[in-house]
Specification:
Elements: E1 3-5, E2 9-12, H1 14-17, E3 22-32, E4 40-43, E5 45-47, E6 56-60, E7 66-68, E8 72-74
Antiparallel strand pairs: 1-5, 2-3, 2-8, 3-4, 3-6, 6-7
Length: 80
C-alpha cells in the first residue's frame, strides 16, 4: 500500500499515539502547508511516507476524532 486514500481503513492510536490501536476509516485527508501546521488543503490521497510526524491530518468517518499522520499505520502494520 503506497498511497493513503480516502475510504481506507487504517490502524489508529488515540491519545497522541499512546492508546492501543483501533480500526478507523479515513473520511478526509489534509496535507499541511508546513509540518506541525493545522492549515493545509484537502486531498484524496497522499504517499504513506507523508504520514509521519504532523505532515497530514486525517479525519475519520467512524470515530469522533481526527489524528496526525504519526498516529496511523496501514492496517496490519505494527506501530512503533
Amino acid at each position: 500500500m503506497d498511497k493513503l486514500k480516502v475510504g481506507d481503513v487504517v490502524s489508529w492510536r488515540h491519545s497522541w499515539g499512546r492508546e492501543e490501536p483501533k480500526k478507523a476509516t479515513i473520511e478526509s485527508i489534509q496535507l499541511n502547508e508546513e509540518n506541525n501546521s493545522k492549515f493545509g488543503k484537502l486531498v484524496d490521497s497522499v504517499d504513506w511516507e507523508l504520514a509521519e510526524d504532523r505532515n497530514i491530518i486525517v479525519y475519520f468517518s467512524d470515530q469522533n476524532n481526527w489524528a496526525w499522520g504519526f498516529q496511523i499505520r496501514p492496517l496490519g502494520e505494527k506501530h512503533d
